[in-house]
Amino acid sequence: MGIFEYAPAPESRDIANLKPNYRPFINGEFVDGNGEPLKTINPATEEVLAEVGTASVSDVDTAVKAARKAYTNVWSKMPGSERAKYLFRIARLIQERSRELAVLESLDNGKPIKESRDSDVPTAAAHFFYHAGWADKLDYAGLGPNPQPLGVAGQIIPWNFPLLMLAWKIAPALATGNTVVLKPAETTPLTALVFAEICQQAELPPGVVNILPGAGDIGQSIVEHGDVNKIAFTGSTDVGKLIQRQVAGTSKKLTLELGGKAANVVFDDAPLDQAVEGIVNGIFFNQGHVCCAGSRLLVQESVAEEVMEKLKYRVSTLRLGDPLDKNTDIGAINSAEQLSKIKGLVESGDTEGAHRWTSPCPVPERGFFFAPTVFSDVQQSMRIAREEIFGPVLSVLTFRTPDEAVTKANNTPYGLSAGIWTEKGSRILWMANQLRAGVVWANTFNRFDPAAPFGGYQESGFGREGGRTGLEAYLNV
């Protein structure tokens, strides 16, 4: 009997309504940017998707002035109940255009359509719905009497979750009465610019949201601008440190959500089949392009062999390929630069003596793809156990006792997330209190909710996004 095989189930790229050209969005209008245009490409095929006009330093100043005017004259004076109506309207428009946004995200980013369709876009809408509910209730958020907005928020987002990270930042900023100047990642600007269209559809007052595509110099200009009151950055730890130095000595408020090297800890009493699903989701979701990815698997020694056997079988069933195929589990790496970084760190694992196993799945000849990879016999001193790979690569270590598991899990400069797999509720509570991580999942992984704050410690940054706690980052309290 032949092996069961899926028939192709491609989503139509026509739904994305791709345009040949996109432009920056300033003061409620799409304008010609004064920066050097960039070409955004499909990482699965290496084809050019569109030409994107970029902002210049002078455009940053224009956008900040527009945001300041909108803040002073309109948005900060508007009752919270009225601001909420705009956020609700934006949320509904995201839902109405969800299929278009999902296809566009997969084209521009390389992630599987089932992830952008079922996770990214619905959660982005959920953040606007959730924060719309807070807009007229800030006096009851437990943040003190009469909390006030900060003013103009400068926001810089990464390429791994372009639309979702936009929602994480813009929704709380608008709900609390701030205006926004946002720079999307250089390689994934398209859904942010379609979001600008949604702002127009929602009849958001001009200047409340401004979207400036560009490279790192535009992000730096936003950070350094004297009339920006708040910086929110999600991205690499190295860039986060630069931003922290730049805002030191100023009155700007700052939140940073940076890298991670999360430990996913499996005890011998865990439901192993369930744990394996959580391991796979923890590291191979979005090709491992996740700050909180469970990239270090700590397995209790007595079940390590069984877990590895189950894990290899499960990983070998993952389908790598066309991101627009609804059957695809692993899409494309976002860029040639990121693929090169992943390959370099994998080579270091080989050199330092770890044992590499790579899924036998076929890899397309064109595009930026990397097959799911698992390293065993990993030591804590190895680069693959210390550095953020940001790709579909898992490092497996073992432990004997709960205390050893905690010690190994905390042996990292990061502290964004962690996972615990065990049947014992008391062990979950004990270990969650021992782990230095902003988010600890128990018998699950990568679960997000707009009502739950998210953020890290140490080199994973500081501040929280989401939930009641996340409102404080955009308020004088």
Task: Give short descriptive properties of this protein.
seven-stranded mixed beta sheet; 2 domains; Aldehyde Dehydrogenase, Chain A, domain 1; alpha/beta; globular; Aldehyde Dehydrogenase, Chain A, domain 2; single chain; 477 residues; 20 strands; 39% helix; six-stranded mixed beta sheet
Number of alpha- plus pi-helical segments? 15
Distance between termini? 67 Å
Helix content: 25-40%
Mean pLDDT figure: 97
Number of domains: 2
CATH topology of the largest domain: Aldehyde Dehydrogenase, Chain A, domain 1
Please give the largest β-sheet.
Answer: 7 strands, mixed
User: CATH top level of the largest domain?
Assistant: Alpha Beta
Walk me through the structure:
With 477 residues, the chain is an alpha/beta fold. The protein folds into two domains: 13-257 and 457-476, Aldehyde Dehydrogenase, Chain A, domain 1, CATH 3.40.605; 263-442, Aldehyde Dehydrogenase, Chain A, domain 2. The chain is built from 15 helices and 20 strands. It has helices at 57-75, 80-96, 98-109, 113-134, 162-175, 190-201, 216-224, 237-247, 272-284, 304-316, 336-351, 383-386, 402-409, 425-434, 467-471, and strands spanning 21-22, 25-26, 29-30, 38-41, 48-52, 148-149, 152-156, 179-183, 209-211, 230-234, 253-257, 263-266, 296-300, 355-358, 373-376, 393-399, 417-421, 439-442, 461-462, 475-476. The strands form five sheets. It has a seven-stranded mixed sheet, sandwiched between helices. A hairpin with a 6-residue loop joins β4 (38-41) and β5 (48-52). α1 crosses α7 (216-224), α2 (80-96) packs antiparallel against α4 and α9 packs across α10 (304-316). The longest helix is centred in the first third of the chain and has 22 residues, at 113-134. One of its GO terms (molecular function) is oxidoreductase activity, acting on the aldehyde or oxo group of donors, NAD or NADP as acceptor. Residues 30-477 form the Aldehyde dehydrogenase domain. This is Aldehyde dehydrogenase (NAD+).
